[in-house]
Amino acid sequence: MAHLLTERKPYLLLLVLLTLNLGLMSTRIKSAGQRSLLEEAVMSLMSPFLKGAHWAGQGLSGTWGAYVNLRGVERENRHLREQIDGLALKAQEAEESRQEVVRLRELLDLRDSVPWTTVAARVIARGADGSARIVTLDRGSHDGVRVNMPVLTPRGIVGRVIEAAPGTSKIQTILDPNSGVAGLIQRTRVQGMIVGSGEHGCRMEYVNELSNIEVGDVIITSGLDQIYPKGYTIGIVASIGEGEGLTKLVELRPEVDFRRLEEVLVMLKPEGPPERSASR
Amino acid sequence: MRIVRGVVALAAAALAQAFLSRYAPSLARYCDLFLIIVVYFGLTSPPAGAMLMGIGAGLVEDSLLGSVLGMNGFKKTLIGYLVGSFGSLFMLNQPIPRFGILFAATVFDPVAELGLSLAMGRSFVFPPTLELLQRGLGNGVLGLLFFWSAARLP
Known about the structure:
Chain A is an alpha+beta fold. In chain A, 36% of the residues lie in helices and 27% in strands.
């Protein structure tokens, strides 16, 4: 039988495998957000390697930076090479530390303003194609992270948790075409649905064509989707065009720079609605 | 032995892709290491082997960094079958035809995903033509390097 499948009639095997994939896909879509055992197993197996790759990459970039600095200083002054190299390295480290302190301080300020308990996390991987539609964090269910918890930075919302393994979790960012965030224009309180447009940003749909919207308006979360708390920045209106029917198509530029995403805050949202909305 | 090589190649591709996507996202955009190993097994193994590698690579890609489990599995299985069948019909052991196969597989990947997304009612943004061409070129060049290296392994 196996010989028949593999050697003589490979299209039978193809049919079996494609059906298996379709079954997996339909199960996954039906149970939106729930992890399958296979995914959990692979994520658990790969998370130490991902962390290892993260660690090795940092070591590599540090070594490379030292090498480049050393060569530059050697050209300038042979006698002062070691001293300058050391100073340059220290300056680089200090600058990196300073920037990290600034980022973490902003994160801490945000943490204080959020009505729920939060956990800080680092981005350790992006989508397979280098895009930021799906990113992986170094915090997971052991840290209290659960599916559908919102993720944000001091500049605005990042996305929501779609999978939480013990040591890592996957985030669907607002750039993903399958994501949806209930939002409103801060100035005029006009509501709409924010949908990702891949790497190009996001767009706001279902906006009445008579609504008062201008380029530069700030769009914030409305809280109506029961995932993102109300009042957090999503982005800025970049352009306004005609949508389907009697609606406007509003393109927006997210406030979060997804290409430089390093540290984020996961809101460990309790069951049920929040006690109070964030005042921002 | 072939199974062991397949598993090792798959693990190495997963690690390398994760590493690239973290530290060189602009480079990762133009290469799909999972696709390269599926095409390699398609050209060097019977269609059944290529399909098994396809489903393995696709599911690992889905589980590790994708969104819907089975989406890449479906595409890569199909690519494995097509390349395996094509490889058993034609002589594809020269660099130019191999580059062509890698390029065609790269273009087929988003086309298959578009079809699947339409069928399942999901949104999908088709990559711009220039980006697709660059990705095909990247996969073609990297794939040929991989084929050249793999041929010299014991």
